[in-house]
Each structure stands twice: as C-alpha cells, then as structure tokens.
Design a protein that fits this description.
Helices cover 15% and strands 46% of the residues. The chain is mainly beta.
C-alpha cells in the first residue's frame, strides 16, 4: 500500500490552501483602480502627443499602422483583451494568464493551453492585490450501460475550482485548488462499457467502469516572470497537480466538459491530470510554449479522500503552439514509472498530439472541436493507439449539442490479454432551463453506440448505452 498522510495533515493542507486563496492583503481594491486610471492617463497623453503639431503625416500613418497591428494581435495584455470570451461577475478586470502575458482564456488544466477564444466562465472578485475566481460544474446522472457486461447506477460527478493571483516582483504568483464530489459515488465508480484503468480495491483492475477521481484534484502554486511584453518563464508545483503531458483534461476542454461521461481514451491522453507530486518549468515565447515536468508516475490508489506522498520518478515534455486565436496545438512525450499499482514492474512511454479549434459565432454562440491521438508503449508489453474526435456547440448560452467518437486498441478487456480495436460513438444535448446571474441549471441526455470485433460480441452482445442527467454550472 502506498504511504498516505494522516487525516490531520490532509485537513491542514486543505485549510492552508483555502486561507491562501481567500485572505485579503493590505492593499485595497481602490488602489488597483487608481493604478489602472494612471495607466489609462499615460496612454491618453501618448496618443495626444502623437497627433500634435510636431507629428508629420508620415509619422502619424506609421503610428496608426502600428496601433492597428497591435490591436489585431492576439498577444495583447490590455484589459479589453483579458475580457474576450469571458463571463465575469463582480470586478470588471479579468485575471491575466498564470504562466505569461497573454489572456487567461488561453489556459486549460494544469499548464496546458486552449485557444484564446475559449469561453472562460467564472465569478471574479478582487481582494486588495489579489484577483480571485471560482467556478463549478456538477452532474447528477442516471447511467444505463447496455449489453451483457453493462449495468445501471445513479451518481454525481463534477468539480469546484478556485484560483487566485497577485503581482510579485516583475511576475505573477498564483494559487489553485480544485475539488471533486466523485469519491462519494463509491470506489467502483460508475459503469462505462470499454473503459479500463486503475483499481477500486487494490486487488482487481477496473474494467467496463470509470474510476472516481480524487477529492483533491489539484492543490498547486505557480510563478511566472515576464521577460518581454509577450514572453515569460514559469514554474508550477502541485500536490496533486498535472504534468506537461497530453491535451487539457477532458473536463477542461470546451468540446468535452459538457459530456457527463469520461472518454474511454482517458488513459491514453490525459490520465495524469491528477498526480501526487508535480514540478514543471517552462518558457513562453509569444505563441509558443516549451515545458518539462518531473512527476510521480503511479496513478492514485483506491483511497480517494487522501493526499499521497509525493515522488518525482517520471518525466515529460510538451510543446504547445497557438498560431491564431481559434487554434491550439500540442505534442508531448512522457516516461511514466510504474503507473499501475497492480503491475508495479511495468513502465509506460506515452506520446500524444492534439489540436483544438474554438470559434465563437453569431450572438452568444460558440463551437469547439478537439482531435487527439495517444500512444502508450508498455515496457514490457504492447504498443496501443487511441484516437478521439469530440465536438460541442452552445447556442444562446442555453442549448448545447455534443458528440464524441473514439477508436482504441485495448488489451485489458478479456483474458488472455489479446489486443482488440474497439469503437464508440456518443451524442446528446443539454437544455439550460433556469439561469441566474452566476449559475445555470440544465437537463440533458446522451446515447452511445459501439463497434466491436467479432470475438468480443460474445462477451458484450450488442450494447447500446444511455445517460440522463441534471447539470448545474456556477459561472
């Protein structure tokens, strides 16, 4: 059994993060507003000087061209750009990026990037020099998985996340905390045909079930130092946290966050999003980001309420690129030491590549799509590939439609461990029937279909699965 901290230490950690997130400093919000007014005044003075009697027509045209290019650039850090795509309540000055001088809308889970056009819902509030934000998503679902190996279960899933940041020297210091209700669904999680990975009891693998995530999904601190107006260096430390490996976790992608079931590609792409011990360092160069992580390779154990002892025995690297506001690419590699508790002598090498496209259109509409590939090379063992294509469109902030298609090479579904290529397609929608200033409530459903090779049909039959759910979002 892996070492665990005692409950007293767990409580102290949680209280410490909560206090750090919400404690006010000596500087008032009024001071921040005064500073912004001074900045605006300096900008106005420059603008007036550039159009005075000393400015020649050629100089004025050059200045206007530069201003136009600057306004069009997606690397801006002015307050207007910080607000792009965001739903804000309270203070009207959005948080900057935790890892560099760019809009916070570019940041996904851990240190990952998403397109700048990604909606960033949250409740923002200043406390002196601190800017804070929190948001949440909870699903209350009834799950029916069909076929010979299916099952039924009612469960709750989701997450609550709080963030805080403040200036520190010539950089930005940040704090993050994310919690999940998943442990309350029980150690066996919920039925999910073709899903594999982790253990429920420390003795058997979870097969055809999705494991619950940890109560503490992230407790992390960050610091970034600006080396130019659009470049920076940064560090990230989490217990737990997420290393630089894979695309953003599925519950943080606009294309997937509204889908209440986990993808079966989870353990090929983003299963390291909860890791007990992460250190990441990186550099942002305009639209590029280069980063490397040391982290604990072992996946969380069957005890979902604790904080496990950290260990830095695995490594990863990732390159991200946002060429335009609507697109984000990443490629990553990782060497994961002994990820499975029940197979301690097996290591894993993982490669991933993904692209995310997010496009607002019309009034209060947005469409987001993710395509990703993951390869895990088991040592010793097999080389297995997985692909996912998921998409979601939100209309008038009220109607959501989504779809997800996956193709996975699996070697854990049946004994002996032969490789089977399986396919799954899910589609559904949500209607948000009630909205307040900071929350919305919706009802939704989905249906899933499967493509199985002939030798698996005797095990699974011809399954069709479905979910109905009620969703609450705090934004």
């Amino acid at each position: 059994m892996l070492p665990r901290f005692k409950s007293r230490g767990l409580l102290a950690s949680a209280i410490g993060v909560a206090v750090a997130l919400f404690t006010t400093s000596a500087v008032s919000a009024q001071d921040i507003l005064k500073e912004l007014e001074k900045e605006g005044s300096r900008h106005d003075n420059k603008h007036a000087h550039g159009h005075g009697h000393n400015a020649t027509p050629g100089m004025e045209k050059t200045k206007k061209d530069k201003e136009h290019k600057t306004h069009a650039s997606h690397q801006q850090t002015a307050p207007h750009d910080m607000l792009h795509g965001q739903h804000m309540h309270g203070d009207q000055h959005a948080m900057r990026g935790f890892f560099g001088p760019y809009p916070m809308t570019r940041e996904g889970s851990g240190t990952s990037w998403v397109p700048d056009t990604t909606p960033h819902a949250g409740v923002h509030k200043p406390f002196g020099e601190w800017q804070t934000m929190y948001h949440a998503l909870f699903n209350f679902a009834y799950d029916h998985q069909g076929g010979l190996r299916g099952g039924n279960k009612a469960f709750a899933s989701g997450m609550f996340m709080g963030m805080a940041q403040r200036p520190l020297g010539d950089g930005t210091w940040g704090l993050r905390a994310m919690l999940s209700p998943d442990p309350f669904m029980g150690p066996n999680g919920y039925p999910l045909i073709l899903a594999t990975g982790e253990t429920a009891d420390g003795r058997t693998h979870l097969i055809d079930r999705q494991h619950p995530h940890e109560l503490f999904m992230e407790l992390a601190t960050t610091y970034s130092y600006n080396i130019s107006k659009n470049s920076s260096v940064f560090i990230y430390a989490g217990l737990p946290g997420e290393p630089a490996l894979g695309p953003p976790a599925f519950m943080h992608r606009s294309s997937g966050m509204d889908i209440p079931e986990a993808p079966i590609t989870h353990h090929w792409l983003d299963s390291t999003h909860i890791t007990f011990g992460v250190l990441t360092a990186g550099v942002v160069l305009d639209t590029w980001k280069f980063e490397a992580s040391a982290f604990k390779g072992r996946e969380p154990d069957q005890y979902r309420y604790d904080i496990e002892a950290p260990k830095l025995d695995s490594f990863s690297g990732r390159i991200s690129w946002n060429p335009i506001r609507e697109l984000s690419f990443q490629v990553s590699w990782g060497r994961i030491n002994s990820p499975e508790l029940l197979e301690p002598d097996r290591n894993e090498e993982r490669f991933t590549a993904s692209t995310i496209y997010t496009q607002p259109f019309g009034k209060d509409n947005v469409w987001s799509t993710t395509f990703a590939w993951g390869r895990k090379i088991q040592k010793p063992g097999d080389t297995l590939d997985a692909f996912i294509l998921e998409s979601a469109a939100i209309f008038q902030k009220t109607y959501t439609v989504f779809a997800r298609a996956e193709r996975v090479q699996e070697n854990e579904l049946v004994e002996p461990h032969a490789i089977h290529t399986v396919n799954k397609v899910s589609a559904g929608g949500i209607y948000d029937f009630y909205r307040t200033d900071k929350a919305k409530f919706g009802v939704g459903g989905l249906v899933s279909f499967y493509g199985l090779p002939g030798d698996l049909k005797s095990e699974y039959g011809q399954p069709t699965s479905s979910m109905i759910f009620v969703r609450m979002k705090i934004e």
